[in-house]
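Agenda item 2: zinc ion complex prediction
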Amino acid sequence: MTSKLLWVCFILTTSTFSTSFSLQPDQPKVLLVAFDGFRWDYLYKVPTPHFHYVMKYGVHVKQVTNIFITKTYPNFYTMVTGLFAESHGIVSNDMFDPILNKSFSLDHMDIYDSEFWEAATPVWITNQRAGHSSGAAMWPGTDVNIHESLPTHYMPYNESVSFEDRVAKIIEWFTAKEPINLGLLYWEDPDDMGHHLGPDSPLMGPVISDIDNKLGYLIKMLKRAKLWSTLNLIITSDHGMTQCSEERIIELDQYLNKDDYMLIDQSPVAAILPKEGKFDEIYEALVHAHPNLTVFKKEEIPERWHYRYNNRIQPIIAVADEGWYIFQNKSDNFLLGNHGYDNALPEMHPIFLARGPAFRRNFTKDSMNSTDLYSLLCHLLNITAMPHNGSFQNVQDLLNAATPYVKSTTLLHCNNKQKEYKRENSYDYFIGVSLGSIIVIVFFVIFFKHLIRSQIPDLRDMQAEIVQPLLHA
Ligand SMILES: [Zn+2]
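Presented output:
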């Protein structure tokens, strides 16, 4: 009976010992959060204490160059594939593929045709192929069947689902019996209100404060679920926003006969598919039409935009200068804020913050490309990246050098803050190993004491046997 008890003690002790070692995060967790249309400088427009809390205890990149065109779907697919639009194939929110003879439209939520998405493999699929689980709360594209695969858990897109409900799902999946290691969380604002009000409107202040409160809610719930210390949280966006004006409008009907072409995408990048035999006529009519409109034949689109080699990029594109709006005619919808312009414009740039065990603390970096995020995600998840247009070297200085699951053998740049963080991690490790060792030593002392007792006759009994005759005598 006593020896059975000892074996139970031994099993408990060894499991405690292994647990003390597993204080190190052997299953890296990543939560990628995007607030649509959060321009980089909204952080300073009004007080944003929760964003600044993440920056203080994590990393912040001041300038993120996203991809052309600076629209929602192309940029969201870049974040999870590391590819430029011409490579991943989501070249705009509104597209026409002449080979497939099919259209794609975000405005009509006509986005579920797998064929539009399958030039690339998003990170949630690669993560699942590596044996892990992913969970997505409304992240664009995560409710589309891509390569016959969906995220392990996902929410079918429904903009009326509250932020709180999306957070609840993410937390449920991270804390399930078979937890996810990758979560993707999407929120529609400040994009919606940015379009409606224009980014220069003083009414944008309360909109940004509301987003900051939402981030505060997310942090509170992650702490409550005891995920805060083990989870790597990345907060980013797809693009910025610029102020438009009804005084800055380019009306295509003034220059072109609308029966001569199809307008696939409108503003600020007009994607024009001329009818047969009309290419030259349309190009000539448009190329010098307006001083704030730059017109390109597909093969002349600037190399730096990486926006040429795809069937869904139309034969002619006309790009408006910042703040200018392209209409087919004046009956079209006008918005006070818009994006989609040249990705070199600061107003088009999104935010990037991150915090967690893998990231350095209170570290600011000048710039990165949104194509680099994918390789960072793959590195954090410890999965092999698919071919992409980003660079892990561009972003590896965001990482804490002591991160235990850093796969790269390249030595990271080390400064005092890193050393400090290294020391903190070493301290946790020391405590874990020490506790485990003490428990094992205590076990062996008890075990050997029992062994000695059971194998060698008890001295007191022997003494009793020896002394008894004398007493009887
Ligand atoms: Zn967007």
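Discussion summary: The chain has two domains: 29-83+120-241+349-419, 249-338.
Owner for follow-up: CH.
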